[in-house]
Design brief:
With 369 residues, the chain is an alpha+beta fold. It has two domains: 236 residues, Rossmann fold; 118 residues, Nucleic acid-binding proteins (OB fold (Dihydrolipoamide Acetyltransferase, E2P), Beta Barrel), CATH 2.40.50.140. It has a six-stranded mixed beta sheet with strand order 6-7-8-3-9-10, with helices on both faces. The radius of gyration is 25 Å and the shape is globular. It contains nine helices and 20 strands. Bound molecules: adenosine-5'-diphosphate and magnesium ion. Adenosine-5'-diphosphate (ADP) binds next to helix 1.
């Protein structure tokens, strides 16, 4: 199956989609989103940010208040849910309790009028795809299975009719951590193997970053940024994304001047700093400087243009790293992660240090609206 890396073929397009349930509050705002054929796209956002509403509009459970959704260039407006032929997997499995596992899996095929014998063969292959090879499995009932097994059945039911697209709404939310992480890797492998377009809703950033080719980060019904996991981590475009994805230190700042992509700012105690700005900020504008804890270096070399005297407030020794909480540049809550090297003397509370980071390792972002 072709991967999505070489071909960026927009399969689904949301164009200026808005959604309100009560005619007053908009829960999806001006959504423009292209989903490529064969990609694994995660929709990531806190509870209430509009993710399920977006998935529901794609599935046909909900209708946009305005704007359009197209599949392969054709409007989906008049296509009812069952004719959209998307596979769907939800957190609560939604299996039929009175049917056997196999009957559950082949249900979509039987609805399409396929004979029991043909459907059974495809059902058997779907069971193998989700790694349920136990010969008696098909005859069991959902209540005789663990949560993880039930979710595999729901996945098999979504795969069985070889859909063009599979929609997932927090499907791993009810599973314990270990199982959830195992299923994340399996789903990722299944996606690679089958090449089917997958759209996966989650509020869990590590889940989105582990699994997806691209992640769309939502806040209050709007896309904040859509990018690969690495880009989101290294090049956040808004202060919201910078603090939502991974850990970041934030400093309030005021823009002094911009030159190309480098922006010079003054921090609140007047000290200067410079970093990369994804948008052009005007002198005098309020901004935030964000720098990841692992990008701050103790005793920096000369190529770190941002250098500060600091005092250690707290030391937390973890197996692979030491986390230092520092007082620096008038801000007393700065986290630094340094690798632990065995045999090195440890850090002490109250100890004075010089720390720094390169301009290219920090971002200057506009204030949140
Ligand atoms: P998420 O999946 O990101 O948690 P939702 O799309 O479920 O977000 O919800 C977005 C907003 O829309 C929330 O404020 C929620 O209360 C509201 N909402 C969702 N479904 C309905 C509905 N059927 N009727 C009215 N309000 C709804
Ligand atoms: Mg939801």
């Amino acid at each position: 199956m072709p991967g999505y890396d070489n071909v960026k073929d927009p399969l689904i397009k949301f164009h200026k989609v808005n959604k309100t349930y009560d005619g007053k509050t908009f829960v999806v705002i001006d959504l423009c989103l292209e989903i490529y054929r064969g990609e694994f796209l995660a929709l990531l956002g806190a509870s209430g940010s509009g993710k399920s509403t977006i998935l529901g509009m794609l599935a046909g459970f909900e209708h946009p208040s305005s704007g359009s959704i197209t599949l392969g260039g054709k409007s989906l407006e008049d296509t009812p849910t069952h004719k959209r032929k998307f596979g769907m997997v939800f957190q609560n499995y939604s299996l039929f309790p009175h049917m056997s596992v196999m009957e559950n899996i082949i249900f979509p095929l039987r609805m399409q009028g396929m004979s029991r014998a043909d459907a059974y063969k495809l059902g058997q292959s779907a069971l193998e795809l989700v790694d349920l090879r136990d010969p008696g499995m098909g005859k069991r009932r959902p209540d005789q299975l663990s949560g993880g097994q039930q979710q595999r059945i729901a996945l098999a039911r979504a795969l069985v009719f070889e859909p063009l697209v599979i929609l997932f709404d927090e499907p791993l939310g009810a599973l314990d951590k270990r199982l959830r992480e195992q299923m994340q890797l399996e789903l990722r492998q299944l996606h690679k193997r089958l090449g089917v377009t997958m759209i996966f809703v989650t509020h869990d950033q590590s889940e989105a970053l582990t699994m997806a080719d691209r992640v769309a980060v939502f806040d209050k019904g709007r896309i904040q940024q859509i990018a690969s996991p690495m880009q989101l981590y290294d090049e956040p475009e808004t202060a919201f994304v910078a603090s939502f994805v991974g850990e970041n230190n934030k400093f309030e700042a005021k823009v002094v001047r911009s030159q190309g992509e480098i922006c010079e700012v003054a921090l609140c105690d007047g000290t200067k700093a410079e970093g990369v700005s994804p948008s052009r900020l005007l002198p005098g504008a309020g901004a935030v400087l964000v720098v990841r804890p692992e990008r701050i270096v103790v005793s920096p070399t000369d190529d770190c243009s941002n250098r500060y005297e600091a005092r250690i407030k707290e030391v937390i020794e973890l197996g692979d790293q030491t986390r230092l909480r520092l007082d620096i540049a008038g801000d007393n809550e700065v986290l630094v992660k340094v690798p632990r090297i065995s045999g090195e003397p440890g850090y002490q509370i109250g100890q004075e240090l010089v720390v720094g980071w390169k301009a290219k390792d920090c971002r200057i972002l506009g204030m949140e609206q």
